[in-house]
Amino acid sequence: MNITKTVLDYVTPAGQNKGRGPLPDRKRPGLLTAAIVTIAIAPFLPFIDNYWIDIGFYFGIYTLLGLSLNIVLGEVGLFDLGHTGFYAIGAYVTAILNTTFHIPILVLLPVSALVAGLFAWMVTAPVIHLKGDYLCIVTIGIGEIVRLTMINNPFGLTGGPNGINGIDTPVFIVPIVSSRQFYYLIWALIAIVIFGLVRLQRSRVGRAWNYIREDEVAAEALGINVRHYKLAAFVLGAGIAGMAGNIYASKQMSVSPESFTFMESSLLFCIVLLGGLGSIPGTVLGALAITIFPEIFRPLAQYRLMFFGLALLVMMIFKPAGLMPRQRESGEKLRSALSKKRREAKGRLTGNDGCRKDMPPPGRAENLLEVKDVHLSFGGVTAVAGIDAEIEAGKITALIGPNGAGKTTLFNLITGIYKPQAGSIRFNGEDISGQSPHAIAGKGIARTFQNIRLFPSLTCLENVLSGQHCRGKAEFTASLLHLPSQQDEETQMLDFSLQCLDRVGLSDSTDKLAASLPYGKRRYLEIARALALRPELIVLDEPSSGLNDAETEELAQLLLSLLHDGLSVLLIEHDMHLVDRVSDHVIVMQSGKKIAEGKMCDMRKNPLVIEAYLGTEED
User: Fold this and answer.
1) Are residues 468 and 518 in the same domain?
2) pLDDT, tens digit (0-9, with 9 covering 90-100), for 207-225
3) Are 380 and 434 contacting, i.e. CB atoms less than 8 angstroms apart?
4) How far apart are CA 425 and CA 414, in angstroms?
5) What are the φ and ψ backbone dihedral angles of 177, each rounded to 5 degrees?
């Protein structure tokens, strides 16, 4: 049983709101204001002494660590149970450089982040392709390797089991020595980190993380470089954990391996799950629970961990999505965050806002896609056996054949999910054989899937925005700084995505969760998502599957209208009436081979096609 998949399926960002749309957020601004005021004035309250101020500091440390893990676990869905290793790297880098070279602590703050991030890149780059339990086990190993390395005192740097003592206190105008000063230092850092994370969540970077968490295959097919964004999440999360290690080391004035055990990583994991995957306020609340709960039950001594475990169990039963689950933002809220006035979506997907450029002159045949002698076998089973096919620009080509003929396998070869063992696939004259799915999508091939692969916990608008990802350019720096170019790009993406939703009749479902849509509308949402990629060729795998007669007729009209927008269409379809209605050319497959091609009216009479579908009588 895949443990990590089970947990992620159980604890979803949408949580108890599965399928019903975004939760109302009217109470959140008031709660946020109250939380900020409480944190700001807490050290000055008459009943708060230095002991509780120190508790507030460690609450801040766990909050910062929880936020760093939330990037990896909550945003991207990667199980990391060795996150304390990056925390330790930050602490020990600070301790070694400060005690050896007397470099000021706050100067070492970015250094700790950079070293922890670089270490994360080095150790996760070779294993980032792993998923679920396998990645989880590897991260446990990484955390333990770091801890054991510190104990073994390599080159006499780490002090062995006793650690490093005599670390200086930070100086910011004045020396930071009191509990109250450290309290405000950690919470000032948290405020900066949260500010940046919120901006990332509202950018194409944050959305890419969420798409990967929901469905890696669909995300890459839409032009998202999955490996790049996974690594970026690990590096960013490790960098923030490294900063937490820097502040912790300066507060303690010493570091030792016993502070960076597997139990600490487990607590961080609990923080993110308790608060809600992907939820920044939830992570803060989870850190509060982890910090305060043991203190409340401290008089019970050895029984407090039992009560703590019981509380976690009750939480998972009654609040499986966490104390404060992530809320999906509406299109209007996303737009207001960009400080732009709403512009009405106008026009169709044509011209400069359309999908295809440099249309060939009318009547000129142009092969947009060419498949030459392509082979693919799985073990001893041949899925595609030397097939040749040519897809003309500006036309609808249908790929038909009985179940198991290799049609979807051919689609997966064209879109890069599978790599051909022989032969070539050329798009616009360029050989795309063996290229990655995200690279092929970027060249102008969009697809849908036989079994719908939407992002169910995201809104319809967010789903369609995924198609716009590879047409954007803003990355981490532009998103964090909220540059004008990034704001303009986001606004254009929102406008075009709304047009795509309107194009398929889903303009009234913009802010609904994809999981809440009926089956037929999910099909249309997947087509809207493909249109948002602004492709030249759209590849549809059984788009009419599950649709009633009226919906199928609407689909036929939509497909025909796409030709007027400069699109070319390649579809797999079992509904012969739809194929007859829309196709310009038909290719018939059986047992991985092309057995016939031509007009649909001719295919109905072709004896090879009749035999493929109906079989032959035995002698």
Assistant:
1) yes
2) 999 999 999 999 999 999 9
3) no
4) 7
5) -125, -30
Tell me which residue of 328, 297, 309, 242 sits closest to 65, measured CA to CA. 242
In a domain, 33, yes or no: no
Write out the E strands in 366-522: 367-378, 381-392, 396-400, 422-427, 430-431, 445-447
Contact indicator for 287, 66 with CB cutoff of 8 Å: yes
Q: State how far the Cα of 317 lies from the Cα of 163, in Å rounded to an integer.
A: 41
If you count DSSP H runs as helices and E runs as strands, how many of each does the chain have, helices first?
A: 24, 14
Q: How far apart, in whole angstroms, are the C-alpha atoms of residue 516 and residue 525?
A: 12
Q: For residue range 25-69, what is the model confidence (pLDDT) as tens digits?
A: 445 667 778 888 989 999 999 888 999 999 999 999 999 999 999
Q: Domain check: are 528 and 409 in the same one?
A: yes
Q: What is the pLDDT of residues 292-339, one digit of tens each?
A: 877 777 776 666 667 777 777 887 788 878 888 888 888 777 777 665
CATH number of the domain that residue 608 is part of: 3.40.50.300
Note the pLDDT of residue 616.
56
Token pair 């290793």 is at which residue?
85
User: Which residues neighbour 72 within 8 Å (Cβ) at sequence distance 6 or greater?
Assistant: 78, 80, 83, 233, 234, 237
Are 312 and 408 in a shared domain?
no
Q: Does 361 have pLDDT greater than 50? A: no
Question: 175-185 burial string, b = 16+ CB within 10 Å, else e?
Answer: ebeebbbbbbb
Q: Contact at 8 Å (CB) between 205 and 135?
A: no
Residue with tokens 């009436």: 577
Residue 384 bridge partners (DSSP): 376
Q: DSSP string spanning 198-233?
A: HHHHTSHHHHHHHHHHH-HHHHHHTT--HHHHHHHH
Give me the domain span that covers residue 516: 367-614
Instruction: For the beta carbon of residue 478, count every other beta carbon within 10 angstroms.
Output: 21
Residue 17 within a domain: no
pLDDT 10s digits, 131-182: 888 999 999 999 999 999 999 999 999 999 999 999 999 999 899 999 999 9
3-state secondary structure of 286: helix
Q: Do 532 and 467 form a contact (C-beta atoms < 8 A)? A: yes
Are residues 407 and 296 both part of a single domain?
no
DSSP 3-state assignment of 171? strand
Q: Nearest-CA neighbor of 479 among 195, 189, 66?
A: 195
Residue 615 binned pLDDT confidence (cut-offs 50, 70, 90)? low
Structure confidence at residue 27 (pLDDT): 56
Residues 279 and 399 in one domain: no
Give the span between the Cα atoms of 403 and 565, in whole angstroms: 32
Q: Which of 19-33, 244-258, 567-581, 589-603 has the lowest mean pLDDT?
A: 19-33
CA dihedral 276, 277, 283, 287 (to 10 degrees): 80
State pTM to two decimals.
Answer: 0.89
d(CA 164, CA 156): 11
The pLDDT of residue 5 is above 90? no
On the question of pLDDT at 2 being above 80, the answer is no
Kindly report the backbone phi and psi dihedral angles of residue 41, in degrees, each rounded to the nearest multiple of 5, phi listed first: -100, -10
